[in-house]
């Protein structure tokens, strides 16, 4: 007679949440719980980075569990963080969202108790973990996607009850609200930092703008034979400079017009033409809106420096830019000739830092060679980072 294999256990076979209400619990220690919340408040106010580690420690202590931890949802997987107790060796490991006790907890959006979950989840048994009981509660933030779960694992023969579930839920509820405050503060700080950087950047640009205008006036005066020729040449350069600066304006509103495809050659020509007719060579590379602004900003800064210190300080100075595509990377070379010999500056100014940070924001690299014939800059940017 053919043997019949028993069906494999399902998640519902190991969920025993109903047991929480049937089990009597110890008398609540409200004073100790109050002090635990006060301690979390203290961490939130003074040392927010310690909030989650202390949350896990308190869950372990208040429930006298074997192990405790937080599982943070990252896409379709949970990452185990701040593990304490016997499971601490698994710090940083990940588990699948749709095949784990944590996923069940978020799906039900309530405390969930499981008994021997390794009978269902093979990755638990495969790791050699024995879990008599695991109690999980969701870590939620109001009007936001769930953060993950807070969980505790029982000792052998230990049974979790409704008292443990209440304590865990209160800890998780407070922490969810606290994390919302922490994240809001972080967003506010980032916005403030961005505004401060923008203010410094704009101040730097305005200062450079007047320096460039002064240089244009001097260059135009040297090459003009009369007043009208001076006016015409200077006006043309100022108008070209205005067109270039229009490319590097930041957008202050999300309600931006539909972006147009702009080629890198168009950007470079607009940026460099106010100083001198550039020599440009390279294939067509359409740019996204952010890349237009940032590439224009980088080459505007290089052109400004060339007009103040480099090849564009002389009538014979020239700038050439060539670029090529190399296995998903656009490689650009800026070459100055006909100007004074260049030397590496003793210190890095705001403009140089701005260029490096802008290039790095696209995952690119920049290298500079100060030569006797002029500055040479090598710039490499991932093509996917600059494409529309």
Structure explained in plain terms:
It is a single chain. By secondary structure, this protein is α+β, with helices and mostly antiparallel strands. Helix content is 46%, strand content 20%. A six-stranded antiparallel beta sheet has the order 3-2-1-6-5-4, with helices on both faces. It has a five-stranded mixed beta sheet with strand order 8-10-11-13-12. A two-stranded antiparallel sheet has the order 7-9. α3 packs antiparallel against α4, α3 (30-46) runs parallel beside α7 (162-223) and α9 (264-272) runs parallel beside α10 (289-308). It is elongated and about 100 Å long.
Structural topology:
Elements: H1 11-14, H2 19-22, H3 30-46, H4 51-62, E1 67-74, E2 77-85, E3 94-96, H5 101-108, E4 112-115, H6 122-126, E5 133-139, E6 148-153, H7 162-223, H8 227-247, E7 262-263, H9 264-272, E8 279-281, E9 286-287, H10 289-308, E10 318-326, E11 329-337, H11 350-361, E12 365-371, E13 374-382, H12 383-386
Parallel strand pairs: 8-10
Antiparallel strand pairs: 1-2, 1-6, 2-3, 4-5, 5-6, 7-9, 10-11, 11-13, 12-13
Helix pairs in contact: 3-4, 3-7, 4-7, 7-8, 8-9, 9-10, 10-11
CATH class of the largest domain: Alpha Beta
Portion in helices: 40-55%
End-to-end span in angstroms? 67 Å
Q: How do the SSEs run, as a string of H and E?
A: HHHHEEEHEHEEHHEHEEHEEHEEH
**Strand residues, percent:** 15-25%
Average pLDDT, rounded to a whole number, is 78
In short:
The chain is α+β, with helices and mostly antiparallel strands. It has helices at residues 11-14, 19-22, 30-46, 51-62, 101-108, 122-126, 162-223, 227-247, 264-272, 289-308, 350-361, 383-386, and strands at 67-74, 77-85, 94-96, 112-115, 133-139, 148-153, 262-263, 279-281, 286-287, 318-326, 329-337, 365-371, 374-382.
């Amino acid at each position: 007679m053919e043997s019949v294999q028993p069906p494999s256990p399902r998640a519902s076979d190991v969920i025993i949440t109903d047991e929480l209400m049937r089990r009597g619990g110890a008398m609540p220690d409200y004073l100790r719980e109050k002090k635990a919340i006060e301690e979390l408040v203290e961490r939130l106010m003074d040392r927010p980075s310690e909030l989650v580690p202390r949350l896990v420690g308190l869950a372990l202590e208040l429930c006298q569990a074997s192990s405790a931890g937080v599982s943070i949802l990252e896409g379709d997987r949970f990452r185990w963080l701040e593990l304490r107790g016997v499971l601490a060796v698994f710090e940083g490991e990940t588990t699948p969202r749709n095949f784990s006790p944590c996923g069940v907890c978020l799906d039900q959006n309530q405390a969930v108790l499981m008994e021997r979950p390794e009978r269902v989840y093979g990755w638990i048994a495969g790791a050699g973990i024995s879990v008599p009981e695991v109690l999980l509660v969701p870590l939620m933030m109001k009007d936001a996607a769930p953060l993950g779960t807070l969980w505790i694992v029982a000792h052998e023969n230990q049974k979790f009850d409704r008292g443990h579930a209440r304590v865990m839920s209160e800890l998780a509820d407070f922490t969810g609200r606290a994390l919302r405050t922490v994240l809001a503060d972080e967003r506010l700080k980032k916005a403030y930092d961005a505004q401060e950087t923008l203010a410094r950047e704009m101040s730097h640009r305005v200062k450079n703008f007047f320096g460039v205008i002064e240089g244009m006036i001097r260059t135009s005066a040297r090459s003009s034979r009369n007043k009208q020729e001076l006016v015409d040449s200077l006006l043309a350069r100022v108008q070209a400079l205005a067109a270039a600066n229009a490319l590097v304006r930041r957008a202050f509103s999300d309600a931006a017009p539909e972006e147009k495809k702009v080629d890198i050659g168009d950007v470079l020509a607009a940026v460099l033409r106010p100083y001198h007719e550039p020599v440009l060579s390279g294939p067509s590379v359409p740019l996204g809106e952010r890349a237009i602004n940032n590439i224009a900003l980088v080459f505007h800064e290089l052109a400004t420096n060339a007009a103040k210190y480099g090849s564009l300080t002389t009538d014979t100075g020239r700038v050439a830019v060539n670029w090529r595509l190399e296995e998903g990377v656009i490689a650009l070379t800026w070459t100055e000739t006909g100007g004074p010999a260049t030397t590496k500056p003793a210190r890095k100014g705001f403009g140089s830092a701005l260029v490096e940070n802008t290039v790095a924001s696209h995952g690119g690299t920049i290298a500079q060679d100060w030569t006797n014939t002029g500055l040479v800059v090598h710039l490499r940017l991932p093509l996917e980072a600059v494409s529309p």
